[in-house]
Amino acid sequence: MPNIQQYNFTYNNIHNTIRNTAKAIAERGYEPDYLLAIGGGGLIPARIMRSYINRPILIVSLSRYSDETGTAPASQPIKLQWLETDIDLTGKKVLVIDEVDDERTTLEFTLQHLFESHPGAEFSAFVVHNKKKEKKGKLPEQLKHFFVGEEIEDYWINYAWDAENIDMFGK
Ligand code: G4P
Ligand code: MG
Question: Which residues belong to any copy of the Phosphoribosyltransferase domain (predicted)?
Fold first, then answer.
């Protein structure tokens, strides 16, 4: 019997979920000026989204760990790299992208800091998967739109990009 407490999301699953969301985003009439990936998990989803919403990709990178060995969890995410850009984001619409909304800690932290560092920009967010559960973090009130690719149960997700042997993934 398959273990139903986990999801295996293949590249094709993820690509199709993002395609469907891009369609829903277009139908809502939302047209971002920039995509912004939250690294590392949001990098591949942002690049796939660009195939449907062809806008430049900005990047921030966060760590949940406070030491270099990656074993001591930090009480809140740490900015490894923040948004430094020559572009003036005043009045621009930015779609922030991550792979999963789990406890919402990363999303709350990132969005709050983006609103602080770029007060003139309009931020929306897209996550490929949202786990249906009680969240620790909150979405900021100023967030314009929140797009979810797929609402899922609170099970562990295996993403194709985490596979050590991609040919055996999900088999
Ligand atoms: P959230 O705030 O984005 O909801 O995530 P949270 O901090 O609660 O989760 C901590 C880390 O665990 C995040 O990675 C998140 O992507 C990852 N995570 C949560 N649930 C799953 C899951 O079901 N499967 C996988 N593969 N990862 C999960 P991170 O610290 O942002 O690391 P990175 O991969 O983005 O570098
Ligand atoms: Mg992440």
Answer: 12-161
